[in-house]
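Summary of Year 1 activities. Much of the first year was spent building the evaluation harness for sequence design. The harness presents a backbone, in tokenized form, and records the residue chosen at every position. We chose the following record to illustrate the format because it has been used consistently in internal testing since the harness was completed.
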């Protein structure tokens, strides 16, 4: 499993609905003074995935990009190896279902579904098959990361998080090239946001080898695995790191930067590829919780 080729590929021949819904819902509440406040809260909708009429899992989602979420979920679960295997994705909110039809039956599907791991995903994430399958095949490029690029990227990201500012209760993830934000996705769970971006990458044949992945969520083992599967060598977060997340980053060669906010960050892995080219204006004693 290597980073995507840069060779131009034909467009994906896939029939999909366009069933995105509003990400927020208007509600009324009372503030601390007993005054009525009109505002918005994040949507949360169940979406049950069926693969060739077989029920697999129910995801809780904002529902704004359900087709991309389903596509990326299939990719990151390793249930389908190539996007061209999929013939159609049909989302129907009246039944809260996403029906996937493949051109041929999926090999070893029963074996893959036998084993299920409950992860640290928001709520209870689920990964089918062996979490460590094919990790030895992942080959990520060694890409230099500059301190100044982190600062520039964090400034670019400040322009996003619209749903969080409006309603809260969501995580954000971004696919970045330099300081440019190619895709920014907010979702009720950080892994849904990752999968939605994976769906966009799969549909457009986007290479991950020269990209940076940003998340507002913590860097767990599953997060590192998904980003590595997407061929992305650099993972940046404003949150913290788990022990297994760090161990897998070291094994897979993922540069891991966490607690990134303002001029502060912690580089946990990838020091050989890191260039300290923009020292902070002031040195502060940082206390992390």
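For this record, the design step produced the sequence shown next.
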């Amino acid at each position: 499993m290597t980073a995507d080729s840069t060779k131009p590929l034909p467009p994906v021949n896939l029939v999909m609905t366009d069933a995105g819904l509003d990400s927020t819902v208007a509600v009324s509440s009372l503030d601390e003074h007993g005054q009525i406040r009109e505002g918005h809260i994040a949507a949360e909708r169940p979406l049950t995935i069926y693969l060739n009429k077989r029920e697999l899992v129910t995801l809780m989602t904002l529902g704004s990009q359900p087709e991309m979420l389903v596509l990326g979920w299939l990719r990151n679960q390793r249930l389908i190896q190539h996007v061209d295997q999929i013939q159609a994705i049909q989302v129907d909110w009246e039944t809260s279902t996403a029906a996937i039809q493949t051109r041929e039956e999926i090999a070893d599907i029963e074996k893959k579904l036998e084993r299920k791991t409950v992860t640290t995903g928001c709520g209870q994430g689920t990964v089918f098959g062996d979490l460590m399958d094919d990790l030895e095949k992942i080959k990520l490029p060694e890409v230099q990361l500059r301190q100044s690029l982190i600062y520039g990227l964090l400034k670019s990201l400040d322009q996003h998080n619209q749903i969080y500012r409006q309603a809260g209760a969501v995580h954000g993830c971004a696919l970045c090239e330099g300081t440019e934000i190619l895709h920014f996705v907010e979702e009720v769970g950080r892994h849904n946001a990752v999968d939605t971006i994976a769906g966009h990458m799969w549909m457009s044949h986007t290479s991950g080898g020269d990209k940076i992945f940003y998340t507002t969520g913590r860097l767990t083992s599953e997060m590192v695995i998904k980003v590595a599967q997407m061929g992305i060598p650099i993972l940046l977060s404003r949150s913290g790191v788990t022990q297994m997340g760090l161990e897998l980053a070291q094994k897979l060669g993922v540069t891991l930067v966490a607690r990134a906010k303002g001029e502060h960050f912690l580089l946990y892995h990838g020091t050989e590829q890191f260039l300290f080219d923009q020292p902070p204006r002031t040195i502060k004693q940082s206390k992390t919780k």
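The longest helix spans residues 190-204. Quantitative recovery figures across the full test set are reported in Table 2.
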